Q: What sequence folds into this?
């Protein structure tokens, strides 16, 4: 394992010392590129009150390539599939090396507050969301209660 | 010894005592002898050697020979007179006890004699030595008689050689008693006294050494072998009834010669035979073999040519032939009997295994030929010529011829290289040779020597003085001479016993040893140690321990040879301090003596010290000698260039102009040598050449310069005339054992200084992969090399050198994208070509072109420009890669600002991205910042301070590396590269503009430094095309230099590279960065070098970098003013790099030393590092620049280097 780039060290330090509201991230002991993350559901979203666990991994090429992030907690969201994978542009082709772990997590938090069923990852959820939004939101609340509290 | 329990004794006919330990025994012997004589048996031995005769007196079949132990012998030698006194305690019992006691005594004596013995092997045979029982074997014979009752199993037989009458008679008379008594003598007492054998010399006083000799001489006839070779392999045996048979040819073949020359005697008995004999019927015999005294004497005789022995009478060739026969015969005999050495050089064993290739005539010849040390003869000492020495005949001519012949053999012989493991072993060899060195006494240098020596340096002085004096006792060496094997005489077994050997150990009496040299055929009773008469040696202390200083102290210790040089050194005032104890007074004495230089110096006396060193060190020697010496005591002269004059006249100068030390370079020496060779025989030759003077002392500094024995410079060194020869080098063995040879040859250390010898005993075994060949090396080193390392501790457990710590940091870097591309391109091409060549089987015939490709790769790793400059053939691709950057647009900040103010679109519009609106406010801010800002902004991508700041079209800034990497990543993913910060784009490499600022504080001093165009004193910012072909290493270097200067504003650093073209590029970059530098390379004159070093040593208020080419400055220089070392590339040979680092990490360094090596991941460098460790073939081929001999090996190496034999996975460290 090559030495940790200075950038990762710096980011980690800052994350630990000064984490964005509702977000925590800490590297695992055995692999400093591997983070345990929690994101609080944004207010006035169906996920409010829930604490969602995620894992984040910084690949060798980081920051040239984006981090890999995945939900560990079950969540009912059109852009997040059953496996916890996230559909978010900055985690894909819109990645820029100027982005950071912090910004990525904030974006994810924002995604919770603004589901985008037009660019779905979980097709059934997106379908439901479009056809019967309130039922879908209720479902999301239910899951949040059930899995994220 | 303990085995000899009384019961056995009684049962077996006799011989408990292998050697007579005490006086009393001796006496017994006498008695026994006389008693024994009674028995009338005919002697088996044809040869009338004294020894034989002596032996014959022995009573029982057990020969007296057993009685003599070599060790014992020696001891007894001294006691002889006492021994002679006959005391009558014939009791056997005693004998056994005595024998038990004996060994210890003997051992003691032995060791004493050993340590003190410089004496060559075989030098002394105790007067009471008769011979020794070697062993027995079973063989066949044919009957020559017919009839019944001639013999029966168990009956004794006597062996005879059909010979000229007189001899036969002689033999008979003397040997008669041989057999007869076997049975009868159970008396054992008497027998036991077999020792009687010993007694003989004494009892039969007639048999003095002299008389024996005489007899032998008379015996001379052994020439027969040559005379009638055909007849000669007949050995008859008979018993007391007259029955006659003949020994089978097989055994007779090798026994004949030995019998003829009296080396062995035989006894035997019949094991089995037909009840009724007919001619030709087979008889099974048990034959016992004894080594006769003569076997051991012969050598001696041979050595001192003064005696009128048979050997001497012979012509050279005959002698050699005889020696060879003897050797072969003994070898056959030993193997027939199954005698195994107790101790032997592993090397020998290996060679035997390999079919004894070495034991052939040629090698023998070499042995016999090995040159006599020219300056060695100190007759006082070696009256007993050693085995080794005697053989040194004449030869220097032969010597050199032989060398030429084999000349080309060594340079390309890859397999001789030491691999990693072996190199480690070398370390342990050194270590072994070092044992006890810390107990050397310390000698204080004379007062004229101004420096204070450290204790270990004083020890070196002791050792060196001793070496010069020829006193080797300073350091005990107890290693068995590598050419010799140690054997022990056996106890003779009772006849009834089965012949089968039970357990070797039971029969070997450790204190009764003898020694055999399977190469020369010599036998010896004394412990053969080496005999080196060479004055001088190898001072191989690790680098930076002050070898120069130690040598200087030695020079002070003994400036002139006036006294000490003369062979019979009576009053060696100078050297005495070295010898034993009284150091202080002695030294003073010598000082005083020397302080009065009025003593007229005879012209022809060897005097003066010649120092040969690399040209870069010449002035350092000169300076340091000056600094170390009290004024007027030692003057040195640089023998260089036009300053050369007439050497004799120069050295003859007196008073103020007196010159004591001549310093010259290897190059000068070589040219001088050529001149001398060419002219010396011409009538017009006037002399005055270095070669016309005999120096008192010759010192080769950095002596590994002559490691190639065929090089002109090496030959030039060999031919120098000087009494005392010293080689200074931190790496006596650079990468193969042969390196050592050259040094030994220079030192004239015999016999190792003879190439074929060295080759036979070191090189070839080594080639055969016997790591134990190193034993020989160890042995050699022990005698003539002093090596201490920085990590060694003195007797009080303190480090002998207290150097500040050294930290080595290996920086494994990643290529930048463009570099990687260029490199990949080159590498692929090289690989392809290699594979193609290999497939066609032409790889090795295109050796040089492959090496050239490799060279390119290695350069490319340093800096792509190194390769691109020399683009050949299809380098378009790389050129294309470069295209983007070749433009020479440069703008300076003011222009840009002006452009912007004037409403011009940013330059990026040219790329068709003009529609991207640029945030003008931001741009303005950036430009302003550029002009003012003193601190470096943080890069968004790597979170570090920007390094090689570049400006994007959108006026965002990044490290060049980061953005280039990003653009590349995007290309790989087929997406447009946009600015990481604002997503504007796409951007291309060609859009980038580098921002270069010169720090105000930097005020370049170096002449070469190009001052900034901007004299107004503001920060000078230049915006230009990005130099994409920057080198990763170079940038890393600059970055590092930058960071260390923040810690230490006056830091001095060394930067090594093997490519001067790379140094050029480093220069440019450093200049641009405003870092002051100096340069030291091979193109500089001696004067320039000296100035550079001096300049570098000056105290200045800013960091200073010295750029050094590895080859020119890797060696010898003392640069302790620096404490940072940067190794920019990987050299094939780690030792060289080590040398380079030790320019800094050496005596005088008082700071922590930091070494940084730069390696690029996934390139040839990694593989070179690997090879560097394993020191395999190709490496050296490239080093030597010659073609490889061992094509198979290099081919494999090529494959390794091209990564064809392994996956070049990234999980490896490099």
A:
């Amino acid at each position: 394992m090559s030495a940790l780039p200075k950038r990762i060290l710096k980011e980690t330090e800052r994350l630990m010392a000064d984490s964005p509201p509702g977000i925590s991230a800490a590297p695992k002991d055995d692999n400093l590129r591997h983070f345990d993350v929690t994101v609080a559901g944004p207010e006035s979203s169906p996920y409010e009150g829930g604490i969602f666990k995620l894992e984040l991994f910084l690949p060798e090429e980081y920051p040239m390539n984006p981090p890999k992030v995945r939900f560990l907690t079950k969540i009912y969201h059109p852009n997040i599939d059953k496996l916890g994978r996230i559909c978010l542009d900055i985690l894909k082709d819109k990645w820029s090396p100027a982005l950071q772990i912090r910004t990525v997590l904030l974006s994810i938090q924002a995604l919770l507050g603004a589901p985008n069923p037009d660019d779905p990852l979980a097709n059934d959820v997106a379908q439901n969301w479009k056809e019967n939004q309130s039922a879908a939101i209720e479902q999301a609340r239910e899951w949040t209660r059930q899995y994220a509290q | 010894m303990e085995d000899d329990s009384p019961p056995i004794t009684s049962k077996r006919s006799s011989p408990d005592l292998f050697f007579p330990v005490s006086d009393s025994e001796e006496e017994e012997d006498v008695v026994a002898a006389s008693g024994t004589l009674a028995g009338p048996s005919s002697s088996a031995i044809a040869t009338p050697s004294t020894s034989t005769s002596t032996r014959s007196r022995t009573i029982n079949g057990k020969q007296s020979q057993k009685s003599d132990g070599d060790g014992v012998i020696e001891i007894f030698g001294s006691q002889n007179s006492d021994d002679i006194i006959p005391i009558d305690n014939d009791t056997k019992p005693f004998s056994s006890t005595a024998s038990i006691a004996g060994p210890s005594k003997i051992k003691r004596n032995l060791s004493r004699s050993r340590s003190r013995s410089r004496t060559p092997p075989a030098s002394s045979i105790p007067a009471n030595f008769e011979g020794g029982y070697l062993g027995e074997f079973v063989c066949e014979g044919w009957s020559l008689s017919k009839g019944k009752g001639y013999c029966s199993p168990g009956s004794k037989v006597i062996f005879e050689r059909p010979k000229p009458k007189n001899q036969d008679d002689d033999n008979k008379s003397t040997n008669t008693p041989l057999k007869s008594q076997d049975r009868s003598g159970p008396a054992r007492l008497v027998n036991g006294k077999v020792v009687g054998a010993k007694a003989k010399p004494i009892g039969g006083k007639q048999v003095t050494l002299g008389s024996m000799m005489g007899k032998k001489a008379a015996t001379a006839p052994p020439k027969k072998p040559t005379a009638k070779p055909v007849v000669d392999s007949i050995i008859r045996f008979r018993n007391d009834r007259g029955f006659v048979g003949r020994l089978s040819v097989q055994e007779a073949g090798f026994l004949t010669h030995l019998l003829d020359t009296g080396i062995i005697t035989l006894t035997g008995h019949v094991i089995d035979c037909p009840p009724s004999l007919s001619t030709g019927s087979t008889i099974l015999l048990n034959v016992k073999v004894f080594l006769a005294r003569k076997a051991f004497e012969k050598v001696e005789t041979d050595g001192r040519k003064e005696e009128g022995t048979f050997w001497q009478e012979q012509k050279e060739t005959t002698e050699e032939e005889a020696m060879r026969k003897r050797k072969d015969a003994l070898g056959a005999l030993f193997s027939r009997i199954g005698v195994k050495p107790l101790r032997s050089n592993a090397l020998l064993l290996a060679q035997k295994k390999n079919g004894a290739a070495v034991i052939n005539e040629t090698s023998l010849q070499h042995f016999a030929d090995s040159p006599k040390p020219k300056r060695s003869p100190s007759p006082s000492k070696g009256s007993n010529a050693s085995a080794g020495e005697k053989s040194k005949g004449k030869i220097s001519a032969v010597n050199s011829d032989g060398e030429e012949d084999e000349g080309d053999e060594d340079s390309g012989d890859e397999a001789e290289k030491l691999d990693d493991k072996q190199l480690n072993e070398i370390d342990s060899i050194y270590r072994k040779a070092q044992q006890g060195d810390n107990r050397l006494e310390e000698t204080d240098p004379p007062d004229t020597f101004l420096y204070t020596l450290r204790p270990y340096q004083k020890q070196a002085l002791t050792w060196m003085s001793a070496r010069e004096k020829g006193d080797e006792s300073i350091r005990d060496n107890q290693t068995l001479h590598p050419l010799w094997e140690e054997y022990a005489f056996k106890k003779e077994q009772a006849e009834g016993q089965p012949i089968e050997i039970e357990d070797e150990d039971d029969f070997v009496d450790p204190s009764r040893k003898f020694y055999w040299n399977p190469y020369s055929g010599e036998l010896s009773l004394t412990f053969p140690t080496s005999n080196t008469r060479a004055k001088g040696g190898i001072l191989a202390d690790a680098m930076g321990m002050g070898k120069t200083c130690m040598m200087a102290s030695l020079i002070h210790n003994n400036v002139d040879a006036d006294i000490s040089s003369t062979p019979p050194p009576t009053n060696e005032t100078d050297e005495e301090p070295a010898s034993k104890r009284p150091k202080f007074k002695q030294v003073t004495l010598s000082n005083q003596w020397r302080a009065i230089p009025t003593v007229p110096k005879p012209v022809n006396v060897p005097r003066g010290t010649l120092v040969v060193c690399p040209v870069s060190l010449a002035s350092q020697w000169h300076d340091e000698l000056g600094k170390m010496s009290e004024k007027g005591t030692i003057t040195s002269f640089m023998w260089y260039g036009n300053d050369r004059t007439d050497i004799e006249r120069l050295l003859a100068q007196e008073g103020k102009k007196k010159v004591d030390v001549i310093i010259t370079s290897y190059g000068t020496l070589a040219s001088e040598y050529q001149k001398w060779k060419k002219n010396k025989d011409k009538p017009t030759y006037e002399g005055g050449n270095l070669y016309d003077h005999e120096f008192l002392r010759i010192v080769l500094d950095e002596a590994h310069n002559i490691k190639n024995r065929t090089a002109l410079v090496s030959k030039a060194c060999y031919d120098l005339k000087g009494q005392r020869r010293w080689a200074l080098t931190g790496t006596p063995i650079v990468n193969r054992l042969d390196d050592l040879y050259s040094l030994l040859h220079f030192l004239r250390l015999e016999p190792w200084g003879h190439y074929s010898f060295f080759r036979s005993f070191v090189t070839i075994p080594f080639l055969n992969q016997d790591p134990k060949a190193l034993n020989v090396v160890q042995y050699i080193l022990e005698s003539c090399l002093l090596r201490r390392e920085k990590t060694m501790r003195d007797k009080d457990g303190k480090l002998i050198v207290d150097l500040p710590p050294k930290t080595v940091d290996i920086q494994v870097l990643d290529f930048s994208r463009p570099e990687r591309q260029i490199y990949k391109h080159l590498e692929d091409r090289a690989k392809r070509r290699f594979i193609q060549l290999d497939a066609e089987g032409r790889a090795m015939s295109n050796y040089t072109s492959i090496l050239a490709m490799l060279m390119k790769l290695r350069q490319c790793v340093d800096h792509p420009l190194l390769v691109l400059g020399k683009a050949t053939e299809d380098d378009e691709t790389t050129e294309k890669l470069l295209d983007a950057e070749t433009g020479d647009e440069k703008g300076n900040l003011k222009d840009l600002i002006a452009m912007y103010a004037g409403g011009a679109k940013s330059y990026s519009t040219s790329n068709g991205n003009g529609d991207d609106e640029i945030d003008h406010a931001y741009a303005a801010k950036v430009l302003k910042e550029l002009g003012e800002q003193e601190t470096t902004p943080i890069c968004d991508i790597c979170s570090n301070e920007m390094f090689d700041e570049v400006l994007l079209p959108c006026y965002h800034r990044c490290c060049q590396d980061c953005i280039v990497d990003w653009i590349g990543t995007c290309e790989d993913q087929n997406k447009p590269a946009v600015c990481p910060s604002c997503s504007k784009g796409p951007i291309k490499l060609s859009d980038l503009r580098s921002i270069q600022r010169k720090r105000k504080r930097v005020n370049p001093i170096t002449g070469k430094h190009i001052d900034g165009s901007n004299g107004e004193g503001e920060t000078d910012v230049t915006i230009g095309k990005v130099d994409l072909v920057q080198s990763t290493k170079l940038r890393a270097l600059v970055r590092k230099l930058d960071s260390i200067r923040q810690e230490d504003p006056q830091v001095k650093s060394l930067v090594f590279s093997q490519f001067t073209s790379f140094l050029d590029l480093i220069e440019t970059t450093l200049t641009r960065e405003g870092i002051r530098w100096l340069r030291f390379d091979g193109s500089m004159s001696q004067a320039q070098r000296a100035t550079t070093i001096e300049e570098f040593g000056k105290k200045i208020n800013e960091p200073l970098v010295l750029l050094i080419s590895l080859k020119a400055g890797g060696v010898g220089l003392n640069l302790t003013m620096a404490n940072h070392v940067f190794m920019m590339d990987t050299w094939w040979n780690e030792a060289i790099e080590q040398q380079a680092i030790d320019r800094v990490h050496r005596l005088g360094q008082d700071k922590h030393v930091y070494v940084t090596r730069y390696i690029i991941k996934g390139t040839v460098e990694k593989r070179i590092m690997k090879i560097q460790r394993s020191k395999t073939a190709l490496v050296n081929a490239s080093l030597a620049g010659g073609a490889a001999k061992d094509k198979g090996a290099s081919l494999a190496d090529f494959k390794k280097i091209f990564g064809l034999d392994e996956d070049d996975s990234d999980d490896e460290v490099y």
Notes: The longest strand of chain B covers residues 131-143. Residues 6-294 of chain B form one domain. The mean pLDDT of chain B is 63.
